[in-house]
Amino acid sequence: MERAHDYFEHDADIGIIGRGKTVEASFENAARAMFAIQCDIDSIRPLEQVEVNFEEDEVELALVRWLNALLAASRERGLAPCDFGLERSGECWRGWARGERWREAVTRGTEVKGATLTMLSVSQGPAGWEARCVVDV
Fold this sequence. Notes:
- By secondary structure, this protein is an alpha+beta fold.
- It has one domain: 3-Layer(bab) Sandwich (Archease, Possible Chaperone, Chain: A, domain 1), CATH 3.55.10.
- It has helices at about 25-40, 60-75, and strands at about 5-10, 15-20, 50-55, 80-90, 90-100, 115, 120-125, 130-135.
- Strands 1, 2, 6, 7 and 8 form a five-stranded antiparallel beta sheet that branches. A three-stranded antiparallel beta sheet has the order 3-5-4, with helices on one face.
- α1 (about 25-40) packs across α2 (about 60-75).
């Protein structure tokens, strides 16, 4: 069975992959992959929530907007997210992330600066959706 989130090789940065039965689920798992680079998301408690809403009609660009909006919201609030949700209605995307403020007990990994258009792909296959891109570290 394929993992819900995974990584792929890239020369200087890190490629992330999110998989799911829906495009939204694949985006949620791409977010998990991205934030798992920054910390052990399994040790984070879902104590606070931030909302992320945007409009985008191109699904590939929506992935990058989603990931970068989550990064911006988490930085603004000092939040280490661990749980994600996303809904889509046409070109309107409504999402959230839950987590907790960074604390000493949270082991920090590599900082992700942003999601890029490099190797950007969102596709549907027999097993479901796969969303991938390279994140700048």
